[in-house]
Amino acid sequence: MAEDEIDRDTVHGLTDALSVAAGVPAVAEATERAYQHRAAQATGWPVVRGWRRLRADPLRSLHLPEGPVDPSTPVGTTSVPDPDSARRAAVSLAVRSVADRAAGPLPAPWATAVNTAARSRLRDVPDALDQAVARTNLHMDHSPSWWRAVNGLQWLVTVAAVAGLLWLVAGYALRVLGLPPLDYPKVGAVPLPTVMLLGGLLVGLLVGVLVRPLIRQASRRARRRAENRLRTGVAEVAREYIVAPVRAVLHSYAEAREALESARS
Hints:
By secondary structure, the protein is an all-alpha fold. 71% of the residues lie in helices and 2% in strands.
């Protein structure tokens, strides 16, 4: 008996409730914020990057793997918050809805069996959901190539600014010591070291501002990708722990009915 005969929309509602209980929205949001955090650290002005390292990474604080996980490798529990009473109640309601819709056309004894089957593995569901989340590949284990390109540019302009500053300091020191002053090359009427210092600072800040919209857009994509992958894992738990026992009872009912009809004919 196919899953859509149980009621695909009802099963979808069950997946929604389990996703919320598993903390999928929280993990997806943490993925988005982690992307922004890491992107800003990789593409921001190198002089102030140290401050960002003092902030906790939103995703790593949940103790989640960021790349593929070997199916044979055991994974520990996550730090995703446990569902509150409202979320647990929503899961119970969704499970009841699946059972009621599946048991609707059945005789009373079989309807009772369906309801019992739907709840038969509910105790195992929280751990299964946590494992499903922990084994989801969030694709956050590598840096995009454009991060590295922007990072290279930021370091280039930072080195130019530092070189310009040191050049100016050296010239000032020579003047203080009464030595012959440095003859700076000029860009128009402005000494080259001044251009290097101010230009490096301005370009670095400008690059940081220009990449912010790109970071926000890419972080939203990372969030959607993580949410879709997490929901896929949750859907597997729904099918294995709730839908499969119900389908087993429905299959047994179908076999019993066929056997009864054959005996009558």
